[in-house]
Specification:
- Chains A, B, C, D, E: Belongs to the CorA metal ion transporter (MIT) (TC 1.A.35) family.
- Five copies of one chain form a homopentamer.
- Chain A is an alpha+beta fold and about 375 residues long.
- Chain A has eleven helices and seven strands.
- The first copy, chain A, has a seven-stranded mixed sheet with strand order 2-1-3-7-6-5-4, with helices on both faces.
- In chain A, a hairpin with a 3-residue loop joins β6 and β7.
- Chain A is rod-shaped.
- The N terminus of chain A is likely disordered.
- Chains C and D meet through α9, α10 and α11 of C and α6, α7, α8 and α10 of D.
Chain lengths: ~375, ~375, ~375, ~375, ~375
């Protein structure tokens, strides 16, 4: 079971990662730690308009003194590899058992849930792969309270929060003047905006594939179109629930979400819709590409067939003529037996006949347009 | 009619089992017992925080003393093969005739219905087959009252409630501190979670088929893709109404469902949605696979055609040349009649001509890229 | 026009029957009688808990004395072939002109309409054909009043109400204790349940076709798949509005539908949804079958092509070799002219060469796997 | 621009007619007259229960005296070819500029709009072509006031209102007893019912095409299926908004629509839904036909391929045998050089060998079932 | 990043332009100027019923004196190439930072947003390309206040507002009598109506392609169908949100939108729906075209195959016959060895046999209808 929750990330398991599951009938709130998961590293950023603390801490308990102050505390846990630390985290932040389960079970669907004082937001972050078309995907859980925000990421690598950290460190924009809910918005916004670079790669790759399909479709092309379709399917499954999450934050009147946040969240919502639009668009384009691929293969086969037909249709009758004059009828027994063989111009006439037949057929093919590409 | 209600389970009838039906125009509330159905075995688990009774009982009447106590009684009937026992069960639990009909008719759609004091929940459980990709599916009916839960399963084999029984026996989690409605939730949750292992098998099988389709598509592959599509269709039909059932339990304010159950049911609902997501995802993937299969077959045909064309196009002209010099024109009658036959280097020149023609054609094919795989 | 309303039932017109129409611009409430329609036969069943009258009557007026009594009167008219009788019926039951039009126009969509004291329900009954896969479909109109129910069927043959009549005659179940609205429910339920045996036939036929498509697809198979798709389309068009009819009966609060009827109607509604589910399922399966058929035809063609390619590719080079040694170059003029012909082992060597070539090609094909079935 | 509004009707432009448009950025309310449009002819029918005037008038002003009387006045303008007359019409009926624009712009989508005292209904009428499968489509605008109804048709030819005129003239049904809103309903109903004969033609043509596709699919068949799909698409686009129009008349509580009209309008609504059903049905059927066509073409190709394969596979080996014995190895140089040529039964044995080979192959093909049709 | 926001417009990037994105995690309200963007040119039109100012201005500040007057001021900024000017514009019009971001980020989805005194409308304008089928697309942002309207266009070229400017200049229609909100409507209406000429081009091109597909399908045709599908996809993505924008303006009761505007906006809404209808229609038609293309290619291949089969099937048996009489069996050794060779009419009989075989086969093909086009 533990193995299910955390497979080594790689091409093969990417698609099925979100499909992992918890054991049927297990106690709700159970947490199961994958042995291969990286140990958690914890970062604490505590800030207000004037002061800033940004450090890595070793134990969850170290952040206790920061939580009750009026300044905003962002505790960012990266990695899920220690049941002990997670349990202590749950104690420090007084997490509901179902919250802890959702945070640890990395196959959750993005959602938002209200637990009295805390708001749990499950999101999923995508980060583009280095050079190739593809992405890493990992779950990020937010636990939002009045003065702090706890975020738990699946892995320490790949993270699209760097620019938010920089905005806090360098006090860019209004982030230092706002509360924890603005921080949550900023991170959610970074997650949604993180879909764009991933999609851009797909857009570029699709344009290359269009070129390929039209000009030299190969089995490799087919495989890639299929692969992209699959990955777009996965992106679609990932982005859809995010829209609902943001919509719920806007409409359902959670106490922890100020009215001032609404225009920002609406902006974020618009971006989520735009991502969905793009995914749907790319899906339709790849579906169209598949059709074009099939047509291109048919066209190619047509060309091959035409070539065979032209060659066969020209040479088979010629060979037949040659065959006739290769027959051994005895010309001495009868003047009707292949007198052509003894004619003075027999051979040249025979060659001329062949030339006429071949030329006539070639002309016919040319008129049918079979010499041009189909 | 009886035969319809209960066919021996096996590959052939699996898909059509849910499609069986009750006789048009029969009296509502009629119960018809399939002769082949296994006789019911009845288990009673009665528990509260401190005490526990877990035993098999022989007659429905044996559980009467447990029903009125404040402790939670779970009566689990497995098998539908005796009209007598079912009728006595109906008397013991004072079931409405329509409830009894729904419980016995194993082709019901999952649903929830309120009968004054009792809540009837019809669900459908799937259990993965042993080694192969596939599943057994059976109906489970819940009759929930304040202090007891009656569950009726179609068959005694295959059941995903074992872990719940263990939680009760070993008093794991909070189950012993909660009422009958928590037990109903726990079982429903086990049913929903039971879809995951089934789906995981399909996921794995689909990944294998992807490999197969790309590399060596066979008629067998086609058959399997089709089979998986059919079975996913069936899973989809099974999971959809469950979502409505859970949603109804959350929203429709049944008296027997406490407010405290809501977070748990919401969790269960999320899992149902996740199952639906996965089923839809797999369906889309298999549809895509079908397209790829068709393309792969076309590609394969293309390759065959190219091979034929290359061989034919090279040898047919050569054969024609050989045919020419096999003609019997009389070289003695005229110097124009095939003088080549008497040349000193006639044969070597002829062979050279053939080599040039063959080489030229081969070069042309090579340039067209026909020697590489399509 | 009359011809439109009533074509002789048969395979050809079945699909288009529901598509017949009333003359554009005709007076609303016009009734037009098809000459070929069978003359109406009228049955009267009048019953209460203790007494029962069940007889055929000749004129609509004969049922007048029964209508005002408190006992339930069911007047069942079968056949629409007499304008006179229909008009007298309208007088006896004081039908609104639009009601009469709807009853007579057998191409109406199922619907429910409230005419002050009366409730008009239009339904469509399907009855499976004798041995083959297919069904007869006919319109049944219900006019429900407090104490009586008038039903008008399109034809006297094929009817799925027999079991309801038997329940009344033998006083099975609660039907004799209930009012006219329960009778209407019982008949509606019989109509909905009547879809199941029809669908079961399709299910069986589809399973046979699956076998056929995989193993020996023929043009006949294609035609049957297409035919089934068409008929499922028609079933779908028929069942969908029934669901709305029953839903409307449950939700729209008609005075004539008691509150006690609701659980029964909900049960009926569940069955209608189940029918829809099955139809959709079968439609998806037949769509999949079509894809599989196409693939199977492609596969078959592939096999043919491979056979041709193997035979051609092996024999064409051999024939070329034979052609070479059939050339007539004069071996006496030069030692370079086909010296092989005069070698001592010329012929055996030539045969050996052919064997090597053929064997090599056969090996190559075998390695490519072309000898196994694709 | 003018040209856009009114192209000569014919096969080519039919599909794109509804797609014409008004100049971007032009003043709302602009009317542009197409030069080719037929000049308007105006008919006036003024009636009440006892009196009737039915005449053609020359100027819009002629109908002024009829408008204010309590009798119903129906002014029917056919043709849009004169800006002057249309403008005078607008003055006589005090039309809002946007109403006039909508009336003249024949590419409007069917809709209903309330302009204080008047109700504007835009509808689109279809009339079947003479003998062939197809239809003319033209816009009809209704301007309904308390005592009069103004209808403006695009062209004087083709019109499905004849039966309504007859009902007024001969005082059939209740039309003479009702107000202008009943007249509007009667015409709208005639328009909706006018779809049925058009669809019936398509139904018949589709049945013919089914036959054709199964038995002798030709390129012509493909073209027709495509054409029918296109025209059904257009019918669908035409009928959908009509449903909304009628629904709006029923639900939106316009003052000019009496409560008594509701049952009639509901009837009309049911017919519109039935038309939509039929169109969708035909669309699904033609889509299925396209699939069948593709399969039939594949089957046909398969047959051709099998024929070629049978012929080639039988004769190519035979020709090879003949080729062997056509070789010129010198039998005198060695006893190993084609001794068969000098055998006493050499030739008969050779023919026998050929017969055996041919027979064996033919048997193999027969066993494979290649001689039967695929 | 800047590069993303503004790529040089051209065929390649057109489709992906709307897909550009803002940097994940950047400060909300950031504006980033693309270096390649053309510098803004600013036009001011200030008008009321009697006076009119229409001039180009150099700095945003020049329009300050016009803004507070009661006359309507339309400030039209074309080009986004200067951060300085845009910032000063934001100051002059006191724009919210998010408004400025939306205006500058040319990849926004059309939307309407209320910022207290101002209404922000994001729209997207399409302008048809010169001679070919295609379009330029650019974002237009509206900032509407009580007395002024600020519009910001992405580029100075291509603009469909000319006719509106003319209506103001020449005081055509009621535009000079109305406020800024009427101007906003007029421009929005011009944008929506601007879709029609673009679509008309596609309609014409599709009709040409239909012809092409039926008569001489080429690879080029396939490519064009694919291209049109892609561009229609993009048009669909562009027009859909416009409908929501206009609907929101009608329904959401913005203070700046008078009640009198409603009929005009409803008219505009109808046009947007009509555009959507047309786009969907064209999409369905091109999908159908793709199917027809595939069928046409199959048909073409069929023809080629039939030709090959006819030629091969006729000549291969003939060549076999010729081969037989080319064998060298020694006629002197035995009377059974090819006695035909010494017959008096051997050769003519042989030719006759060939003629009979060829004629028979040709007849068979003719009867199969293979000489006619498939």
């Amino acid at each position: 079971m533990a193995k299910k929750n955390r497979r080594p990330s790689g091409k093969k398991t990417k698609a099925s990662k979100m499909d992992s599951y918890i054991q049927p009938g297990s106690v709700p709130g159970t947490i199961i730690i994958d042995q291969d998961a990286p140990p958690p590293t914890i970062f604490l950023i505590d800030y207000n308009q004037t002061s800033l603390t940004h450090k890595q801490i070793n134990t969850p308990e170290e952040c206790v003194p920061y939580l009750d102050t009026i300044s905003v505390s962002w505790v960012d846990v990266q990695g899920l590899g220690s049941a002990d630390i997670l349990q202590r985290l749950a104690n420090v932040f007084s997490l509901h058992p179902l919250v802890l389960e959702d945070v640890v079970n990395v196959a959750e669907r993005p959602k938002v849930e209200d637990y009295e004082d805390q708001l749990l937001i499950i999101a999923r972050m995508v980060v583009p792969k280095e050079r190739i078309c593809g992405f890493y995907s990992e779950q990020v859980s937010f636990v939002l309270d009045k003065n702090y925000l706890l975020t738990v990421q699946e892995e320490p690598e790949h993270d699209c929060f760097e620019s938010v950290r920089m905005r806090i460190d360098k006090s860019k924009g209004i982030i230092r003047k706002q509360g924890a809910n603005y921080l949550a918005y900023a991170l959610l916004d970074a997650i949604i905006d993180g879909f764009f670079p991933v999609l851009e790669r797909y857009g570029d790759r699709i344009e290359e594939l269009e070129e390929e399909v039209m000009n030299k479709p190969s089995r490799q092309t087919l495989q890639e179109i299929y692969q992209i379709r699959r990955e777009l399917l996965q992106l679609r499954r990932t982005i859809w629930p995010h829209r609902d999450v943001i919509n719920s934050l806007i409409r359902d009147g959670y106490e922890l979400i100020n009215e001032d946040m609404k225009p920002y969240l609406r902006d974020c919502y618009d971006h989520a819709v735009q991502v969905m639009d793009m995914v749907e668009n790319y899906r339709e384009i790849t579906n169209g590409l598949m059709d074009v691929y099939l047509s291109a293969v048919s066209n190619r086969m047509n060309e091959v067939m035409k070539f065979l037909t032209v060659i066969s249709s020209i040479f088979i009758p010629l060979t037949f003529i040659a065959g006739i004059y290769g027959m051994n009828f005895n010309t001495e027994k009868s003047p009707y037996n292949m007198p052509e063989l003894n004619w003075y111009f027999g051979y040249p006439l025979c060659l001329a006949l062949m030339a006429v037949v071949a030329g006539g057929l070639a002309l016919a093919f040319w008129q049918k347009g079979w010499f041009s590409k189909f």
